[in-house]
Design goal:
With 114 residues, the protein is an all-alpha fold. It contains five helices and no strands. The radius of gyration is 26 Å and the shape is rod-shaped.
């Protein structure tokens, strides 16, 4: 029986991992076994990071809206409640942008919702 060599497939697999590990320091970018561990860890972190980014941005928007609404003498929760009651369907991202960039429009929205 002839000996089977996995040369091409194995090389492709290792090269793919080492390509992903480019830029890592020391053995983490040069040795396959260590690079493979680091790439797997990095991919886990990137997956988690994508979820955390959504939470962090929502938190930031809420903080900005709260700061702008308190200047007008109304709390964030009261403001959102008034918006829902008066069918103003702006999401938090847009509200935060309006609060930061166009305070006069934000003040109008508050007066409309009350």
């Amino acid at each position: 029986m002839a000996r089977i060599k996995r040369g091409n497939i194995a090389r492709k697999r290792r090269k793919k991992i080492l390509q992903l590990a480019k830029g890592y320091r020391g053995a983490h970018s040069r040795l396959f076994r260590v690079a493979n561990q680091q790439v797997m860890k990095a991919l886990r972190y990137s997956y988690v990071g994508r979820k955390q980014k959504k939470r962090v941005f929502r938190k930031l928007w809420i903080t900005r809206i709260n700061a702008a609404s308190r200047v007008q003498g109304i709390s964030y929760s009261r403001l959102i409640h008034n918006f829902k009651k008066s069918n103003i369907g702006l999401n938090r991202k847009m509200l935060a942008q309006i609060a930061v960039l166009d305070s006069s429009t934000f003040n109008e929205l508050i007066s409309i919702s009350e």
